UniProtKB/TrEMBL annotation, chains A, B:
<dbReference type="GO" id="GO:0001716">
    <property type="term" value="F:L-amino-acid oxidase activity"/>
</dbReference>
<feature type="region of interest" description="Disordered">
    <location>
        <begin position="228"/>
        <end position="247"/>
    </location>
</feature>
<dbReference type="Pfam" id="PF01593">
    <property type="entry name" value="Amino_oxidase"/>
</dbReference>
<feature type="domain" description="Amine oxidase">
    <location>
        <begin position="65"/>
        <end position="520"/>
    </location>
</feature>
<dbReference type="InterPro" id="IPR006311">
    <property type="entry name" value="TAT_signal"/>
</dbReference>
<dbReference type="InterPro" id="IPR002937">
    <property type="entry name" value="Amino_oxidase"/>
</dbReference>
<dbReference type="GO" id="GO:0009063">
    <property type="term" value="P:amino acid catabolic process"/>
</dbReference>
<dbReference type="GO" id="GO:0009851">
    <property type="term" value="P:auxin biosynthetic process"/>
</dbReference>
<protein>
    <recommendedName>
        <fullName>Tryptophan 2-monooxygenase</fullName>
        <ecNumber>1.13.12.3</ecNumber>
    </recommendedName>
</protein>
<comment type="similarity">
    <text>Belongs to the tryptophan 2-monooxygenase family.</text>
</comment>
<dbReference type="GO" id="GO:0050361">
    <property type="term" value="F:tryptophan 2-monooxygenase activity"/>
</dbReference>
<comment type="pathway">
    <text>Plant hormone metabolism; auxin biosynthesis.</text>
</comment>
<keyword id="KW-0073">Auxin biosynthesis</keyword>
<dbReference type="InterPro" id="IPR050281">
    <property type="entry name" value="Flavin_monoamine_oxidase"/>
</dbReference>
<dbReference type="InterPro" id="IPR036188">
    <property type="entry name" value="FAD/NAD-bd_sf"/>
</dbReference>
Length: 535, 535
């Protein structure tokens, strides 16, 4: 399959080059547009499931995005579909916590979210990259309004407890000063003929021209205080109107100070393919997607159904389950096929008769730890006092991230922000605490960056994914080695059972991984049904 | 005044340093927050006009933002206020063109905007930077919802008709490849000891570490095809879910290709202080601000009033005006003071008895040419075909800018984008054409970037600011020389007349310049009224 893709890709490129050379750029582009994203994206629109399923039935385990996409499409194609879901709600990790919601984690702690009306956090996914076409298409089908998610905010902070006396620095100043100092260094090296071996004379002239503009260098290619640098990093006194409105320039940081601060590690935060503009979010919370899917699947999803065993035979698959709220009474469901979207962290503990390679794969992939904490404050002080509208502050404190809401800007009244997004060891430590203690610590840490926390904090919720009873972790953490050994085995249809979910994708943690893995699985099952008549 | 500001700024900094050294970073930050933006921003909140105006009256010329801010505040402070406005609507350049609107430009061309309901363009200002605190405060007072304005979109294009066969390049690829190639050059120079004179050994180690991350270099500090570079610039085949989901890496452009394309000139588009994240826009169009102000000033603004003369004497100011729709019948208005916000391009043609320095200043400042063209299409092909959600494409074609709407993302149905934002000579050329011809040319140029234009175009509107009867240009273009000579003279209160507007600010073209100049002017007039009893 990969070989074919790769050949197709080359053919496409060769074709485009041919058209470009013979008919010009516009013609080439027209052809490119006609070819569409076929070779660029693994998502080629909802698969057209041609041919009748002839009464075939599919049992889907898990009403997260993967399970609901599969259920939605298979029903449309004429399959008999039922979904078993552990929770009392659909969505899985697609989930928005709002005021009035209750959440009980493993260990028995129950939290009652006390946010005011209209405020929320997304404990799971919270961003939709522009190229996650499958998910975006479902947002369109489900009529879910989207708005921009602000990732990089030049006025948010980069913070290190070990640099600048612990004083947070605006992203814009570190960004401008790192860029400017790099540009100056490279310009000097060019002027001193130190790049002659690598860069032609002609390119050196262009390089200098580009560095001046890109790095905000002065006419001597120096990065020094002046209108040009202030226009990037900010002013000591900003320009205004009327008399006494003349701006005062600010003083750039030296390369030594920027490098020593290690704050440059936050400068690429919006450069990764999943974090570039435009990032989007559903208006009202990511959970809007799961909620909308659930409405489309009313009567198809059985809630509070805890799967205890999965058994396949020649004729189909039988799944045993009990009421998730009180164990004891075991029920069963049966269908011709089973699409299992249960996270591997849970599935590895459920008896299931699949081949050894798939069973090994299921047991091999560890799950990432993550803790997210939402905090409500009496007022949106980050906007009112600090001119921060959305975006993210990064810190070396265990809380790692403070994310300001990308909605309701400039409104009076309360505000909810994401006070922490903990990873790795920090996440494990916080997972071990009670929710109240997590919130208390997060407020304490955060007040090092925003002293207003002390006055303005009202309440919070803390979700530690390793204590989420339905996932026992946040997402599958594949390594290259694990992929080589187990990925294809995990994704094969094993008799009458196939897996789907972010764990069965090259987009771990992303909803698009769940969506595209579900579409891939239903396409392959349907091919078997139509071809083999096994149903 | 400047000397005082500068001393204040130093004192503040010294104070913070003192607190930081003696009490730590958090304490320093707490003090900084308490000091607030006083020394950073020329806007320090709405001025408190203490003391009674004792019946004083103010005549305000122009119901743009400057005029309406002045009117709003002076009324609150107890002044008798009237506003004369040339147009049949308030707002001035704060203006949104919507379907059903009619606009007649100098020369007689009338355009009937045919956009569908809900679609619009802002012919004037269209972005609110996060630090334009005066304007943001009025948005809050006037209860105007804001949403993010997407400036930089990594998936929009940088386009040169002279590079890559005229094929537009995604911002992300040029950005990643320029960065990556710079980082590689600098890393090599460091490793070859060519920076030893400028960078210490210790800093060199940090520099290399930072360059690897920042430039997406591999373990040998090379910028080459691989998962790291694809994660910045995009993939030949994107990662997905299920089988056959493995991504294929893309091939970076060489430094030579990036430099030769000149596309690097678009890479700093979101780095300037007024263009950094977070940029905001009013939901429904920038005109929402002017419209809301006008509702607050109902009965205070006289519309269709064309000022023909301004005359001051010892006791007050008399302004002659006629109906802008049919000249002839001259009326007059009189008040103790006059705040004139009429653009200098118009004001220089109106008889007014002010001092020679102010008169010279009024005549000295040229106005920028600018043309904006809005186009309606049958569908949002930029989103559907090209995954572009908001943001800006830059091109060397005369149209300069294509800006995709930062709202209603991912919706089915029609869409309106800004098809051109012409400057300088290009703008003058387009100003000379009929509106229909401007639109036709813009569609023709734009189809070099988006071939879909040919199929999908429906209708358009074109505003050439030099033909706007109430401005005769877009904004005041100050040079340093003009500022030194004329700015303070322009901003002085001249007898009983004072000017306000973006032209009386260090923020030309920006609404914040109009707002802060108005606040400055009313503060100074009020001081005279209270102190001098001249009213």
């Amino acid at each position: 399959m990969q070989g074919e893709d790769s050949r197709l890709s080359m053919t496409r490129r060769d074709l485009l080059r041919l058209v470009g050379l013979s008919a010009g750029g516009a013609a080439m582009y027209a052809v490119m547009n006609r070819l569409g994203h076929a070779a660029e994206s693994p998502y080629q629109g909802t698969p057209v499931l041609q041919g009748t399923p002839r009464g075939a039935s599919v049992l889907i385990l898990g009403a997260g995005l993967a399970g609901m996409v599969a259920a939605y499409e298979l029903r449309q194609a004429g399959y008999k579909v039922q979904v078993l879901e552990y929770n009392h709600r659909a969505g899985g990790r697609n989930w928005t916590l709002r005021g009035g919601d209750t959440y009980t984690e493993l260990g028995g702690f129950t939290q009652h979210c006390q946010f005011d009306r209209g405020h929320y956090i997304n404990p799971g996914p919270w961003r939709i990259p522009y190229h996650h076409r499958g998910l975006l298409d479902y947002c369109k089908k489900l009529d879910i309004p989207l708005e921009p998610f602000v990732q990089v905010n030049h006025n948010a902070y980069l913070h290190s407890s070990k640099a600048f006396g612990g004083k947070p620095q605006r992203f814009r100043t570190v960004n401008a000063d790192y860029r400017g100092n790099l540009a100056e260094l490279l310009a000097k090296a060019t002027q001193q003929s130190k790049l002659d071996a690598q860069v032609s004379r002609e390119d050196q002239a262009l390089l200098l021209e580009s560095l001046r503009q890109w790095g905000a260098l002065d006419e001597k290619y120096a990065y020094v205080a002046g209108p040009g640098t202030s226009n990037r990093r900010g002013y000591d006194k900003e320009p205004g109107g009327g008399l006494s409105a003349k701006p005062l320039d600010s003083q750039p940081l030296s390369l030594h100070d920027v490098l020593g601060s290690h704050l440059w590690s936050g400068l690429s935060d919006g450069e990764g393919y999943e974090f570039q503009t435009s990032l989007l979010q559903p208006v009202g919370g990511m959970g809007r997607i799961g909620e909308a899917f659930a409405r489309k699947l009313e009567g198809v999803i059985r809630y509070n159904a805890k799967v205890t065993a999965i058994h396949q035979d020649q004729g189909g698959v039988t799944v045993s389950y009990e009421d998730a709220r009180r164990s004891g009474h075991v029920q069963s469901a049966r269908a011709d096929w089973c699409i299992c979207t249960i996270p591997l962290s849970i599935l590895s503990q459920i008896p299931m008769n699949v081949s050894a390679p798939m069973a090994e794969a299921i047991g091999a992939v560890p799950y990432a730890a993550s803790v997210k904490v939402g905090l409500q404050f009496k007022r949106r002080f980050w906007e009112e006092d600090e001119d921060i509208y959305g975006g993210i502050t990064l810190t070396d404190l265990p809380i790692n991230t403070i994310a300001y809401p990308s909605c309701d800007f400039n409104r009076p009244g309360k505000g909810v922000l994401l006070g922490a997004y903990l990873y790795g060891l920090d996440a494990y430590q916080f997972t071990a605490m009670s929710p109240e203690e997590r919130v208390r610590r997060v407020v304490e840490y955060g007040s090092q960056i925003h002293p207003q926390y002390r006055q303005e904090f009202e309440n919070g919720v803390a979700v530690a994914w390793h204590r989420a009873p339905y996932t026992l972790g946040c997402f599958a953490t594949w390594t290259d080695e694990l992929r080589d050994k187990h990925y294809d085995n995990l994704c094969q249809i094993d008799g009458r059972i196939a897996l789907a979910g972010e764990h069965a994708s090259y987009l771990p943690a992303w909803q698009e991984g769940a969506v595209t893995s579900a579409l891939d699985v239903i396409t392959r099952i349907h091919q078997r049904v139509v071809a083999g008549g096994t149903a």
